[in-house]
Amino acid sequence: MNYASSQTYTLNQASADDASDVLSGFRNQFYIPQHHNSDSIYLTGNSLGLQPKQTEAYIKQELSDWATHGVEAHFRGKHPWYYYHHFCEEVLSELVGARKQEVAAMGSLTNNLHLLLVSFYRPAGRKYKILMEANAFPSDQYAIESQVRFHGYHPDDAIIELAPRPGERFWRTEDILRCIDEHRDELALVLMSGVNYLNGQFFNIREITAQAHQHQILAGFDLAHAIGNIPLQLHDWQADFACWCSYKYLNSGPGGVAGIFVHERHGHNPSLPRFAGWWGNDESTRFEMKKGFHPQPGAAGWQLSNAPVLHMAAHRASLDLFKQAGINRLRAKSEKMTLVLKQIIDQYNQMATVRLQCITPDAMDERGCQFSLIASERGKEVFDVLTQHGVIADWREPNVIRMAPVPIYNSFLDLYRLKEILFNLAK
Ligand SMILES: Cc1ncc(COP(=O)(O)O)c(C=O)c1O
Fold first, then answer.
1. Which of 422, 312, 336, 333 is nearest to 375 (CA)?
2. What is the DSSP letter of 184?
3. Residue 224: CB within 6 Å of ligand 1?
4. How close is the Cα of 328 to the center of ligand 1, in Å?
């Protein structure tokens, strides 16, 4: 595949790319928001994924079982609610590269992060600090600040924020590894994004974890922007824990059920401190209603409450599409789409007075499908013009436009149409 920068992306090329795309049929399984009676160019799956058409049927099935069986649907429903979270395990474990017992669909992202920090942020003596990337998503910052305060430390002292080098836009892995090394005697935890929400950088989870482990430091990851975007191998990479949401690349609806990963070496350790709830208790004795918490082995032992079945039904609807599409095939299409998008942006920049500087790493193994762009001037105006022409991208203060062609529902024709709009803008 060669998108030489001298050629522009033509309608013929886009049609040929769509025709040869083995995943093209999946687009029709989603509702595409409309703009003046035609499909918008939806490039915001990094924020909220689109609705699969089958979501409604999955939710209706549970409403119907509720109507038919009432409480008895916990055991007599088509998909018994008592075990409902298990129905998400297979695909989630494939997406993050884990054993089934290492994942659980549960709760919400920030709640789960707190629960995991209770277990895995265990400051002791001189080792009480947390290393994270500077300007991480605010909810992560707030969660970590409040956790260190909860343990009696001050965030300014207990949180080490690593920024890219002056004048650079993304982090060098070598700098992250060196920082872990330099602070090895004071770090209790390294907590990073999988993919940074603002610049789209994919961090090297394997190397970061290995470096942390060399110094008996735990490593956890917020995969909000990574899951469903990039194939992951959390088990083999030895990550200690991870959490994610499902409303971005996993298309499971606003505020949808989130998920966690706990490596099996921790998941089988019932003596780990944790905040417990009855759904984390051993399934076979849960309804005996006895005193004394006995966690189920694995990530499921971190559950607190009974499953939000209607949200989980939406989750299953999308996960079933991922099962059919396969994360590796999605990634292959995603890589091809990002090469096209990059070429379009580069060519636009050769013509335009308002340039769009890409702050996402170029290297394929350091990014997923999101591109983050900074306009040389009047960024919001550029963004607004795109919106008026039916491009749904997103704007992050103070000046970042994020665009993500999502392989499960975006087409190459979307990219061709984006090119036409951008090139007109450049004139
Ligand atoms: C990286 C990251 N962390 C945390 C959150 C907060 O998620 P929630 O509101 O589901 O807790 C988000 C939301 O977009 C996010 O992108």
1. 422
2. T
3. yes
4. 25
Mutating to test ligand 1, I would choose from 44, 116, 139 the residue with most ligand atoms within 8 A of its C-beta, which is 139
Cα(125)–Cα(236) distance, rounded to whole angstroms? 30
Cα–Cα distance for residue pair 274/142, rounded to 1 Å: 20
- φ, ψ at 350 (rounded to 5°): -70, -25
For position 2, what pLDDT does the model report? 41
Q: Is the CB of 137 under 6 A from ligand 1?
A: yes
Angle at 52 between CA 420 and CA 406, to 5 degrees: 40
Q: Give 269-291 pLDDT, tens digit per residue.
A: 988 999 999 999 999 998 888 89
Cβ atoms of 188 and 165 within 8 Å: the answer is: no
Gap from CA of 121 to ligand 1 centroid (Å): 19
Closest by CA position to 347, among listed 41, 8, 14: 8
Q: Is 306 touching ligand 1 by the criterion CB < 6 Å?
A: no
Q: Ligand 1 mean position to 304 CA, how many Å? A: 20
3-state secondary structure of 81: helix
**pTM of the full predicted structure?**
0.96
Condensed to tens digits (0 to 9), the pLDDT of residues 134-175 reads 999 999 999 999 999 999 999 999 999 999 999 999 999 999
On whether the CB atoms of residues 102 and 299 are closer than 8 A, the answer is yes
Q: Token digits for 208?
A: 């970061």
By C-alpha distance, which of 83, 80, 143, 136 is closest to 110?
Answer: 143
Q: Residue 306 C-alpha to ligand 1 middle, in angstroms? A: 22
246 CA to middle of ligand 1, Å? Answer: 10
Residue whose C-alpha is closest to residue 248's, from 272, 271, 266, 229: 229
Domains of the chain: residue spans and CATH: 11-30+327-426 (3.90.1150.10), 59-324 (3.40.640.10)
Pocket of ligand 1 contains residue 394 by CB under 6 Å = no
